[in-house]
Amino acid sequence: MGGLPVEPGELLFELTDESRLWVEVRIKPESATHIEIGAPARLLVGETWIDGKVIQEHHALNEITRTLAVRLEIANPEHRLHPGQFATVRIQTDDSGETALTLPQDAVLRSPDGDWQVFVEEEPGEYAPIEVTLVRQLPGLAVIDGLVPGTRVVTQGAFFVQSELAKSGFEVHNH
């Protein structure tokens, strides 16, 4: 078997160029409808945000996680990102300027009859359940419809309020 002669210092292979990377992000399928090719994206690595953009959206769900893959292209000149690393990602959805009423996810609960509800303050220390429509969920947030903006809503401890009202015999499903 013969070989190819190589001079010392001669480049044989370049295994990787990490100055620009593709990052695969896994998202819920319902979130994919709001993402467009070319949309700006940001990755949080440690304490540093790195800018990028959406370059591809897969159309097949992962059979195990039931998530959809979105591919980002990220500049990595300082080599902060490496294969297999986890990061927090934010992808900008449409630029329509649409406003939405959002609450922490823990503020929106299921009522006994299965509808979504929040607890509003009627008077200081007195709360009532109000049914709302859950439009969509974002990481840590629920986008809702059915409340007037500015309504005072229980945002922490809603489950406790629901439990206390149920223990007192109060009809919590608001029908």
Structure summarized in a few sentences:
This protein is mainly beta. It has helices at about 30, 160-165; strands spanning about 20-25, 40-45, 50-55, 70-75, 90, 100-105, 110, 115-125, 125-140, 140-145.
Looking at the overall shape, the CATH architecture of the largest domain is Beta Barrel
DSSP helical segment count:
2
Please tell me how large the radius of gyration is.
Answer: 24 Å
Q: What strand line-up does the widest sheet have?
A: 1-4-3-2-5
Q: What's the mean pLDDT score?
A: 84
Largest sheet: 5 strands, antiparallel
Distance between the termini: 85 Å
Assembly form of the protein: single chain
CATH superfamily of the largest domain: Efflux pump adaptor protein, beta barrel domain
Structural domains: how many: 2
CATH topology (level 3) name of the largest domain: Elongation Factor Tu (Ef-tu), domain 3
In the CATH scheme, the class of the largest domain would be Mainly Beta
> What percent of the residues sit in helical stretches (DSSP H or I)?
under 10%
Strand proportion, as a percent range, falls in 35-45%
Secondary-structure content class: mainly beta
